[in-house]
Amino acid sequence: MTASTSDIEKAADALRGGGLVAFPTETVYGLGANAEDPTAVARIFHVKGRPPAHPLIVHIDAAERLDDWVEKVPDTARVLAEHFWPGPLTLVLRRGHRVSLEATGGLETVAVRVPDHPVALALLSAFGGGVAAPSANRFGSVSPTTAGHVRAELGDAVEVVLDGGPCQVGVESTIVDVTGETPSILRPGGLTREDLESVLGHSLASVSTSSVRVPGQHPSHYAPRARVVLVEPQNVVAEAEHAQERGHSVGVFLPPTLAGVEVNAHAVVTVPDSTAAYARALYGFLREFDQRGCDLIIASLPAEEGLGLAIANRLRRAAGPRPSR
Ligand code: TXA
Ligand code: MG
Description:
Elements (H helix, E strand, L loop, with lengths): L4 H12 L4 E3 L6 E5 L3 H11 L8 E3 L15 H10 L4 E6 L14 E5 L4 H10 L3 E3 L13 H8 L5 E2 L12 E4 L6 E4 L5 H8 L26 E4 L5 H10 L4 E5 L12 E4 L4 H17 L4 E4 L8 H11 L7
Parallel strand pairs: 1-7, 3-5, 4-8, 10-13, 11-12, 11-13
Antiparallel strand pairs: 1-2, 2-6, 3-6, 4-5, 8-9
Helix pairs in contact: 1-4
The protein binds threonylcarbamoyladenylate and magnesium ion (MG).
């Protein structure tokens, strides 16, 4: 199942040839291209159906190589990179000249991370450069956390899909902007705010809906086909049964405190007690509900601390208003 050395060599060759490679990371699967090749990067946008102004993350194989990709590394960035890389942290810095403007959506800043997955690191080392990669899903939909999800969604559009098993974190990286006076979180993710703050020694500016273009911040992102409705945990069962009786095919996220409760609905998953297990399973649950033909999903939000912050962020966006797409 897991990609072999020859699979990785083949994938590195495909990147050198301007091709696209889907690869596992600890957060979600990425859809990669050579970050220095504008034509290859343009293909990512085409395959994803992603508007070209939306910037990508450049993946590199070690913190020591950060200086090759950015103009200058502020002390805070150095500390965070040394502490958390490889890991689910993306740093936004001033763009270095090697990164194509296509990859940054025309911005003078660039997002960089070192993923914590042996297959990703082997691919990046074999390739030797930076790999620009968004999550390997179509624009606006749920990120893939298995190679099977990628094949089902992107199939033939990708030269190589490297299999690295199910993603261990399950939600995307935490994005921290370190271009300003004080760092700020642009997207909550797999690295908790609490962990960042303990290393920085001070609290972080609250999640910004800043002027920076962050398409992940669009309300309709991370959305399954089914409509998602968020209710208070104690109302999940009643709301789900009511909607099911009205003729909906309802998928239910049953809160852990209600484990074992019978629910008259089309599909029921019990939310794991630990937020780490919940984050790992979240996107798989959303896909499962779609596959089983649910048209409505009833869920509640976890406490917004630790990984619960990222889970709640994704659920809110899945439930957000959807422009036509
Ligand atoms: O965990 C992850 O971050 C995964 C894996 C594959 O690494 N990648 C991922 O990429 O989630 P994507 O493209 O789905 O989300 C990248 C986010 C977008 O919201 C984008 O706007 C933001 O990063 N971003 C990229 N460059 C930026 C920049 N220069 N300034 C602000 N935000 C940026
Ligand atoms: Mg994405």
